[in-house]
Design a protein that fits this description.
The chain is mainly α. The protein has helices spanning 18-25, 48-67, 79-90, 103-117, 148-156, 209-221, 227-230, 243-247, 253-261, 270-292, 315-323, 329-341, 346-359, 364-374, 380-391, 406-413, 418-423, 432-435, 442-448, 460-471; strands at 3-8, 29-36, 73-76, 94-98, 122-126. The protein has a 5-stranded parallel sheet with strand order 3-2-1-4-5, sandwiched between helices. Helix 4 links the parallel strand 4 and strand 5. Helix 5 (148-156) crosses helix 10 (270-292), helix 12 crosses helix 13 (346-359) and helix 14 (364-374) runs antiparallel to helix 15. Keywords: Chromophore, FAD, Flavoprotein, Lyase. GO terms for molecular function: deoxyribodipyrimidine photo-lyase activity; DNA binding; FAD binding.
């Protein structure tokens, strides 16, 4: 039987894996391969939290392959060189992979496809990560969308309820003498003498395809009901938490949509389902923007902000934000949740981003870089779009005068203070009336929470006024809808 290499990247699953399906359909025996080449993704090589998740996700994929009679061949080095070696060692006739959409990956994959095709190898790439390819959704004039609503109105019509294919129960065994590294040889996890800063992650997450399926099941049975409103409250289990599983391709958006559309929902829940699907739409929109405007991972999308007066970061203030020591409880709770779990509730992401870009008036890239290193769902498209949206510099962005009040956000979306108390245990004994703005009751804080900052690192009112004054220069507005 002829062989085909299946080059796994961020498609770490066997169900609904178009590259695997294509090889089997062509009659090839698939050889699953993972090549560790983080430098090829520069300047956005995976961060530390991403690598910690990747270690466990690769282990889960290898276990799933072994349960079917196959195994994952792990290599490290230049991707093209390692693929050429594998082709020579296995006499493979074809190479299949699922597409990535980041600028560096597109350039690398294009070069590899052209080089290997010129030597007579069958090389095919497939869509495993998106509901719609970025180049297939266009405005009436043939341009990419820059506003979400018309983009999603167009893309939403393409969703299908048909269940995607599942993996076969058995897979052929790769050649016995085909050598590879152990996953542990990639040194993706923190190792002594480095502290196990990721230990808290695994109380909340199960990387791998099985963990992704369980997370989707739990969401559809529970938080999907009431999702539209409840998703705003960080103290509740009210979101899908599928983002890291989607990022690593442990589940596909097609699988999620098929489950959602294939289920009969009460009329009262339909608004929740539509809103959840629109959140998947934002993920698609982010990839659409990055594909068509790749410079936005580093630069403001809106050129009116090219001369904006960002403040020079104070290293002590930036560190206080990173470590959850700003003295603003809802901000600090979010940053502590991120550090402990590798994830942060979306409502709180907007609050901490607004604090950094508006109250501190630091360039959004300082926040994007920190999130990139600490999030287990550190997706370049989503991370870029999220930060530019809050900063007001991106497509479909929040208007420049929108500055999240961390006090109002805490009072509205964490009214009982459960979220703040969970992640800031030093404030656990404060009454609810003091949790949103403890500096307003200094005597109480000195007595009950002496270890917490006595006041915020920046005056919220004064910094808001300074931000409004600075932002009123560009007065950046999103382009008109097309």
């Amino acid at each position: 039987m002829s062989h085909a290499l299946i080059w796994f990247r961020r498609d770490l699953r066997l169900d609904d894996n178009p590259a695997l399906e294509a090889a089997l359909r062509a009659g090839h025996a698939p050889i699953p391969v993972y090549i560790h080449a983080p430098d090829e993704e520069a300047p956005w090589a995976p961060g530390a939290a991403t690598n910690a998740w990747l270690h466990r996700s690769l282990q889960a994929l290898d276990a799933d392959l072994r349960a079917r009679g196959s195994r994952l061949i792990v290599r490290r080095g230049d991707s093209l060189s390692e693929l050429e070696k594998l082709i020579a060692e296995t006499r493979a006739e074809a190479l299949h992979w699922n597409r990535l959409y980041e600028p560096a990956s597109i350039a690398r994959d294009t070069r590899i496809k052209q080089g290997l095709k010129s030597r007579g190898l069958t090389v095919e790439s497939h869509n495993a990560a998106l509901l719609v390819e970025p180049w297939t959704v266009q405005t009436g004039s043939g341009d990419p969308y820059r506003v979400f609503t018309p983009f999603w109105k167009n893309a939403r019509t393409r969703l299908v309820a048909a269940a995607p294919p599942t993996a076969p129960a058995r897979l052929p065994e790769p050649p016995v003498l085909l050598a590879g590294l152990g996953i542990e040889d990639l040194k993706l996890e923190p190792a002594p003498p480095e502290p196990r800063w990721d230990a808290g992650f695994w109380q909340h997450w199960q990387p791998g395809e099985a963990g992704a399926r369980e997370m989707l099941d739990a969401f559809l049975d529970g938080a999907a009901h009431g999702y539209k409103e409840q998703r705003n409250y960080p103290d509740r289990i009210a979101t899908s938490k599928l983002s890291p599983h989607l990022h690593f391709g442990e589940i596909s958006p097609r699988q999620v949509v098929a489950r959602v559309l294939g289920q009969v929902w009460p009329a009262a829940v339909q608004g929740d389902i539509d809103h959840f699907l629109s959140e998947l739409g934002w993920r698609e929109f982010s990839h659409h923007l990055l594909f068509h405007l790749p410079h936005t991972a580093q630069e403001n999308l809106n050129p009116k902000f090219s001369e904006f007066r960002w403040a020079k970061p104070d290293p002590a203030h930036l560190a206080a934000w990173q470590r959850g020591r700003t003295g603003v409880p809802i901000v600090d709770a979010g940053m502590r949740e991120l550090w402990h779990t590798g994830w942060m509730h979306n409502r709180v992401r907007m609050v901490v981003a607004s604090f950094l870009t508006k109250n501190l008036r630091y360039h959004w890239k300082h926040g994007a870089d920190w999130f990139w290193d600490t999030l287990v769902d550190a997706d370049l498209a989503n991370n870029t779009q999220g930060w530019q949206w809050t900063a007001g510099t991106g497509a479909d962005a929040a208007p420049y005068f929108r500055i999240f009040s961390p006090i109002a956000q805490a009072q509205k979306f964490d009214p009982a203070g459960k979220y703040i108390r969970r992640w800031l245990p030093e404030l656990a004994t404060l009454p609810e009336s003091a949790l949103a703005a403890p500096w307003e009751q200094p005597d109480l804080v000195r007595r009950l929470a002496p270890g917490y900052p006595s006041r915020p690192i920046v005056d919220l009112k004064a910094s808001r006024e300074a931000a409004l004054a600075a932002y009123s220069g560009p007065k950046s507005k999103p382009p008109p809808e097309r």
